[in-house]
Amino acid sequence: MVSSPLTQSEIRLAEPIAALCLATDLATGQPLEHGFRRALLGVWLGEELGLSRHELSNVYFVALLGTVGCTIEGAAFARFFKDDIAFGEQIVLRDPTRPIEMAAFFLRKIGEGDPPSRRARKVLSAALLGPTESQIICRDVALQVGEMLELGPEIRQAVGQCHEHWDGRGGPRRLKGEELSLAARIFRIAHDAEIFNRVGGGEAAVGVIRQRAGKVYDPRIADRFCEVAGHLLSRLESETTWDEVLATEPAPVRLLSLQEFDSMAQTVANFVDMRSAYTLGHSPRVAAVAEIAARALGLSDAEATALRHAGLLHDLGRAGVPVAVWNKREPLTASEWDRMKRHPSFTELVLARSSALGHLGILAGLHHERLDGSGYRGVPASFLSVAAQVLAVADAYQTKLESRPHREAMTPDVAAEEVQRQANQGRFDSEVVAAILAAAGHQAPASKKREWPAGLSDREIDVIRLAVRGLSNRQIAETLFLSPKTVGHHIEHIYNKIGVSTRVGATLFALNHDLVQKAAGADAS
User: Fold this and answer.
1) What are all long-range contacts of 499-503, with beta carbons under 8 Å and residues at least 24 apart?
2) For a Cys staple, 423 with which of 36, 346, 433, 443, CB 3.0–4.6 Å?
3) What is the value of pTM for the model shown?
4) 34-240 and 453-512 share one CATH topology?
């Protein structure tokens, strides 16, 4: 059975944010709970500095979310690297105060393993973009996520400063000194101290902090860290669990209503779906169809609500698979296929740490299972609840409505035929398939004219929908029968209206306002 729906007394704001933090660890090549240890170090260091409860709360949430923008930044540049996750794991060990060494490392990794001509094209393309574009993407994503999670302007500002340095040589805004928020300054030290303590021990961590003090780090905070590092790092060895991280959250603890959790789960879903242009908006549509079908099948309100939440979070584990695997046009190698098949278990692993979210992880982790045991994890039919079967069919149906690297999107009729064929083969339950298809058929858009957010016009909506799917200005122009110059003007106006400066920022805005694609069951061809 699926447990009862979440209520205001059962879940805290920190829990979905901690789950997002774990997914960020997966995407950036760090071991699970790196972000947790960073948060503990940040709060403890803040206490040593005598910060107020409000300041500690800012430090806590910024430490959990400080690399959230870097997750999509890595995905945006994944075309240059064979494995963006491995690249993320390695880049944090390089010294950002030595630009020549950093540039040499990038050159070694760009196009690694490609034929010389293809690698040369990638190197040139990456050079034209430059590091500033990467930093702008990171900032845009962080600011958008901070706003979508409704954590307040101070936290939103700080999570957008993950590439800034104390000496003003970071980016993209070249903030310097106390222009950087206090929470961001503590984050930089806690982040690097956790990494270098883990790979080299306490002496290595202190050495890095001292060497970069006054450059990357606030020298006053760096000095204080070095004074208390032995105590903090020793304490860290035994206090790295989910429960400890929740217990460290500064008061007052914020509890979420069911509606607030639903909104936050949708934000997390949109964020993870952005890892590939092929999955933009996927999870919310799976969740919507699954919930409708569940109610039609007679599941309780509690089960239908839990199924919706599991649908929103079911692809969290995709963060642990390199973007190049998701975007590959050629057949996957055996190792790539193995990595891809692990993403449902990653989802369960991320959510299992929470007593409030664990039941969602169990359900979400079954979204690729089949009644004949041919699913990714080989779970037999006897272990698949009706809710698990509903989620699996909803995911399969919605996936077929979306284009993939190796095929175009199917029409709703063809997608329906495909899932029905799998039911005939014994992979899906026919009654569940019928409920999903009925639910999808009721997802027609309203006929009245829609008022778009931020004052966007109908034409600007056409442009943003194509832009966030990766089309160039020329391709958008050809699709909409406009000139590339006109498309450029439209994009400039869109950015001004929604307050971003990159397509990645625009993509997050589009996802948050349900602008990417019509609802499931509408024309998805």
Assistant:
1) 500/140, 500/143, 500/144, 501/136, 501/140, 502/133, 502/136, 502/137, 502/140, 503/467, 503/468
2) 433
3) 0.85
4) no
